[in-house]
Specification:
The complex is a heterodimer of chains A (150) and B (411). With 150 residues, chain A is of the alpha+beta class. Helices cover 43% and strands 19% of the residues of chain A. In chain A, a hairpin with a 2-residue loop joins strand 2 and strand 3. Chain A is globular. A seven-stranded mixed sheet of chain B has the order 4-10-9-8-7-5-6, with helices on both faces. Chain B has a four-stranded antiparallel sheet with strand order 13-14-17-16, covered by helices on one side. Chain B is an alpha/beta fold and 411 residues long. Chain B folds into two domains: 141 residues, Aspartate Aminotransferase, domain 1 (Alpha-Beta Complex), CATH 3.90.1150; 257 residues, Aspartate Aminotransferase, domain 2 (3-Layer(aba) Sandwich), CATH 3.40.640. Classes of the chains: A alpha+beta (150), B alpha/beta (411). Chains A and B meet through helix 1 and helix 3 of A and helix 12 and helix 14 of B.
């Protein structure tokens, strides 16, 4: 197996892809945002529960490739309890990570596993789809795609 | 008809692009339904055109313009004989199948489709044979209707078809070969049924032309469209065949130079067919390349290619059906060289990404068939599609790589 592949599909990514975390519809009130890449067939719904400025809970449902599903799973783990402003910062760091491979290990922790995506420009849109959906949810918009501009 | 089966290995050597390594492995190109590779003869014809003959068509008096015009019109004659059209005037050059279908939906539709009429399609159409008709329906107030398919085996359900042909149906547009399912539709029978009720027919031959014999007299269609780039020709070379009676009874598609006979400040008149549908400078080099491609394909023999495609598809279906948890789409018998599949718990894009690292080029996604994907209850499929330069060893390699992919994601 080629090195690039092992870098793309790191164990932690395969694990989250097989057993996605926060893969549920929350109880109580929530807002939703759709992330869809119809060309690939990736389609997710994100559920956000905001308490004031804080993401009290964030979860998702849907189907997609390993990269997009693991990205949604690890993003929801990371952002629970964070503020909207922090979520925006993480988004910027994640975007740099998957497009350039440059990582801030202290800030991103396990998500550094996605650094390998930058070797596969066609897959950047998969990794970043749930993140764009999350941002759309925070802004109160309800659907995004990353097929035109990742 | 070619009597001797061709030497496939010798033919493969005509395609320089195939002799390369991708990610350290020999390239196994199995994305032919998207576009085919080009033999040297086509590359050389286009190179020769630009080096020796390049000029504009139908307007210059000088020698180079004469040669360009001759090259362009010779390509039209070659295409007419390839399709067994009655005359070259029944061949309109377009950018591809998509533009050819849009031309019919726009120009024929403008005169013949009105509010209350029905445009009949099938559930297996490519977006290019759906969206132009949706635009026509929106402009005219006509309705769309779809002939159903049977399920995963992807056959057109012929039982209820005659009931769909009510008096409101003006045109029946359908594909010859499905780009996702590999189904080969009984086009001559479908055209005969429609014709008996006075319904005009359009055949989308994007996946069949150059892959099996396509004879418009035998098929009995009013219109037929195909793309040169899927049969060894260059991108930008597309063909609309139309029966003279139909083409004569249509307004122009686009206006501009080369399609007019006389222009006034306030009105103009058009040239005869096919020129009235070819506004502006056409892709002359692409036409020269298309002619070379049709000569090449003609020498190989479309009947031989059909047999080779079907043998590879049958082999692929047999090998792939042994993989645990695979879902195969399309007919079990008489499957064209397009095989779609899903591996359980592995998304098509992951399959295609990993296959690519082994040098195997597949397609993953909805294949411009979103309504069909919904009908099959899937988001996407992975697809292997063959042409005559593919080999049984490459099908073996595909099966081997898919097994590796299953191990990789199961580990």
């Amino acid at each position: 197996m080629a090195d690039d592949l092992n870098e793309l599909y790191q164990q932690v990514i395969l694990d989250h892809c097989r057993k996605p975390r926060n893969f549920r519809v929350p109880a109580g009130a929530y807002r939703t945002a759709e992330g869809r890449n119809p060309l690939c067939g990736d389609s997710f719904t994100l559920y956000l529960q905001l308490e004031g400025d804080v993401l009290h809970d964030i979860s998702f449902q849907g189907s997609g490739c390993c990269i997009s599903k693991a990205s949604a799973s690890m993003m929801t783990d990371l952002l629970k309890g964070k503020t909207a402003a922090q979520a925006q910062q993480y988004f910027s760091q994640f975007q740099t990570l998957v497009t350039t491979g440059a990582m801030d290990e202290e800030a991103m922790g396990k998500l550094c596993a996605f650094a390998g995506v930058h070797h596969f420009p066609m897959r950047v849109k998969c990794a970043i789809l749930p993140w764009h959906a999350m941002l759309a949810g925070l802004k109160g918009e309800n659907s995004v795609t990353t097929e035109q501009k990742p | 008809m070619s009597v001797q089966p061709p030497n496939w290995d010798t033919l493969r050597a005509d395609f320089p692009i195939l002799a390369q390594q991708v990610h350290g492995h020999p390239l196994v190109y199995l994305d032919n339904a998207a576009t085919s590779q080009k033999p040297r003869a086509v590359l050389e014809a286009m190179d020769q055109f630009y080096r020796r003959d390049n000029s504009n068509v139908h307007r210059g008096i000088h020698e180079l313009s004469r040669r360009s015009t001759e090259a362009f019109e010779a390509a039209r004659e070659r295409t007419a004989s390839f399709l067994n059209a009655r005359e070259p005037a029944e061949i309109v050059f377009t950018r591809g199948t998509t533009e050819a279908i849009n031309l019919v939906a726009y120009a024929w539709g403008a005169r013949h489709v009105h509010a209350g009429d029905t445009i009949l399609l099938t559930e297996m159409e490519h977006h290019s044979n759906i969206v132009p008709w949706q635009l026509l329906a929106a402009r005219s107030g006509a309705k769309l209707a779809y002939a159903p398919i049977t399920g995963d085996d992807g056959l057109l359900d012929l039982r209820g078809l005659d009931n769909l042909f009510d008096s409101t149906v003006k045109i029946f547009a359908f594909t010859h070969v499905s780009n996702t399912l590999g189904t080969v539709n009984p086009v001559a029978d479908l055209c005969a049924r429609a014709r008996r009720r006075g319904i005009v027919t359009l055949v989308d031959a994007a996946q069949s032309a150059g892959h099996r014999p396509v004879d418009v007299a035998e098929i009995g269609c009013d219109f037929l469209a195909f793309s040169g780039h899927k049969l060894c020709g260059p991108t930008g070379s597309g063909v609309l065949y139309g029966r003279r009676e139909r083409l004569d009874d249509m307004p122009p598609f686009q206006g501009g130079g080369d399609m007019i006979s006389n222009v006034d400040y306030f009105q103009s008149s058009w040239k005869e067919i096919p020129h009235k549908f070819e506004a502006g400078t056409p892709d002359i080099a692409a036409a020269a390349g298309l002619r070379a491609a049709l000569d090449y394909i003609g020498a190989v023999g479309c009947d031989n290619i059909a047999r080779h495609d079907e043998e590879l598809a049958a082999l692929a279906l047999e090998k792939l059906s042994r993989l645990p948890g695979i879902r195969l789409f399309g007919p079990r018998q008489g499957h064209a060289g397009v095989v779609s599949f899903l591996l359980r718990d592995i998304h098509a894009h992951d399959v295609v990404t990993v296959a690519d690292q082994f040098g195997v080029a597949l397609r993953g996604g909805h294949h411009c068939n979103q309504p069909l994907m919904k009908r099959l209850g899937v988001e996407s499929t992975a697809r292997a599609s063959f042409y005559f330069y593919n080999t049984a060893a490459e099908v073996d390699r595909l099966a081997e790589v898919l097994l590796e992919i299953q191990k990789f994601f199961a580990a």
